Amino acid sequence: MILTTDTKILISEDELIVADDLRLTLGQMGYLVTGIATTASEAIQLASKTRPNLVLMDVKLRGQGDGIHAASEIRRHFDIPVIFLTAHADTDTIHRASRVLPYGYLVKPYEENELRAGIEMALRLHQAQNQFSRLERFLSTTLASIAEGVIAVDLNAQVCHLNPAAERLTGWTAKEACGKPWREVFLLMHAETRQPVEDPIARVMQDRAVWQVSEPRLLRTRNHTELAVHDCAAPIIDERGNLTGVVVTFRDCTEEIRGEQEKKRVESRLMQTQKLESLGLLAGSFAHDFTNILASIIPCAEMLENALAADSAEHVLAKNIKQASLNAADLCHHILTFAGKGKRTAEPIELNRLLSETINLIHNSISKQARLNLDLDPTNPPIQGDPSQLRQLVMNLIINASDALEGKPGAIHARTFQDYAGRDWLKTAVVSPDLPEGNFVFLEIRDTGCGMPAATLAKIFDPFFTTKNFGRGLGLAAAHGIVRAHNGALHVSSTPGAGTVFTIAFPTGVHPAHKTPPSQAALSNWQGHGKVLLVDDDFLVRDAMRHVLQALGFEVHAAANGPEALEMLQAEDGEFRLLLADYTMPQMDGIELIRQSRRLYPRLPAVLMSGLVDAASNLQPGETHALHTLQKPFTTATLRAVLRQAMEAEK
Description:
The chain is α/β, with parallel strands linked by helices. It folds into 4 domains: about 10-140, Rossmann fold; about 145-250, 2-Layer Sandwich (Beta-Lactamase), CATH 3.30.450; about 345-505, Histidine kinase-like ATPase, C-terminal domain (Heat Shock Protein 90, 2-Layer Sandwich); about 530-650, Rossmann fold, CATH 3.40.50.2300. About 45% of the residues lie in helices and about 20% in strands. Strands 6, 7, 8, 9, 10, 11 and 12 form a 7-stranded antiparallel β-sheet that branches. It has a 5-stranded parallel β-sheet with strand order 2-1-3-4-5, sandwiched between helices. A hairpin with a 4-residue loop joins strand 6 and strand 7. Helix 11 (about 315-340) packs across helix 16 and helix 18 packs parallel to helix 19 (about 590-600). The termini are far apart.
């Protein structure tokens, strides 16, 4: 029976009679013979030319090279299976033939059924091996292309495979790692303790289940660097259910963790900023309301003090009321400074001189156990600022550093220098982390004191927060506000038991100094005259100032708001010599009142009263003519000085 098949077979036989008989037999079986070769070289050429599905190869061939050599070349170059058909069955020949991995070895003479079975088995085996090779290449390509590292480990916990990602992450090549103990190639450590973690390979082999932890671990690479990785180990189980090894997959999550840490840092910074802004608004609102109360108490206390006999108990009480109110006003000043709403001047300042002078002033307030070191850069350019506020800043930081020594021997280092502040440094600043990078003049105050834990460090700029048994907890809050008001950046770091470092960066740009009105009257007995219009929405302030202004010689007309004041101005038609207006009022604030009054009477002198800011800065150029400011709360002496200036300017 002849079967029809597409299988092509090449015969390599040097005995032509045998070859021809074999060709006839194969044809009767339904196979297609592509040629007959009698030498090794001819067999290789015909295999290359005809590309048969199978070669039937005699071991002994004519010429140079035998069938074993020809079979080796054909397998290597063309991947064509070979069956040896030979009369030689000696051990040496069989051993040599086996080295080329033949698909069969039939000893002549053989039966036709043996030949057919050998051919079909060889073809099926070759087909299966090709499928396996394709699958192997597919899996190898897949493992090579994935970004995660893959390591396979055998039952002896020795590495048997690394994909390219694993090579890159561990620093080991597959050739170097294979056969080495698992822990030598893949050493995992706890992220915080740096101690080796539980061996996932042993755990998987024991449980025969996937092992994974949610927290990242540290991988120590071959070159001793550390990577944060997420890893997972799973058992390798064959088709019979036998455990044959463990596969570990892992990925580098270092940048991911850094991103999460940066996100948390930004969120924390945002929360801190929002908290401080909220506290600033609350503090500013409180200080504004409180200064209005003090603005009515201080003048009344002064009037009582002046009206009572100097040796009377009542005189002392009035004086005490006045002093307590002034102390409260100083407290408000600290709160307003924290809120960034305190009044300040701006002038060129030599930071080295200001630092040295301030330290000399407070030298007696520093712990006797403290060793104070100064390191001043003589090339520092001037900075723009308020000398009073900057002195307060230096005092607060130096005294705070002294307190941190807790009466024990230690050092306080005060240093000035110039440097470039980059984005990385600025974004870690507590104050003004969003300043543009550039050149700054730096002030650094470092102590060797007790330091602070993170929980305390997070609260040190909160108003009224203090770790001391005394004090108001406003020193660092004020320092925060002063740095912010000077467009600077403040960075603080502290380690319990190792001290604290405050570093402040000041912009170097210097602008012309602003002139400020004198705070003292030239003559303490100066008296005014004429009509003044007093505008304040607080009745107690209006009433107290009415009495003080009358005592100074003025005829006082009072209004509770802007529209009422404008009506009175028009009714008197230019009779008023001066306008005193509160900055913060409903319906119309003091600045808008002054603007509208100037439209009616362009040369009318005005005094703008405020408990929050130097409100004149909100006026446009050209609107400040004959305008004076008065910071609430104020004493009679301060009021007299400002009114005297205003009246003299009228002339």
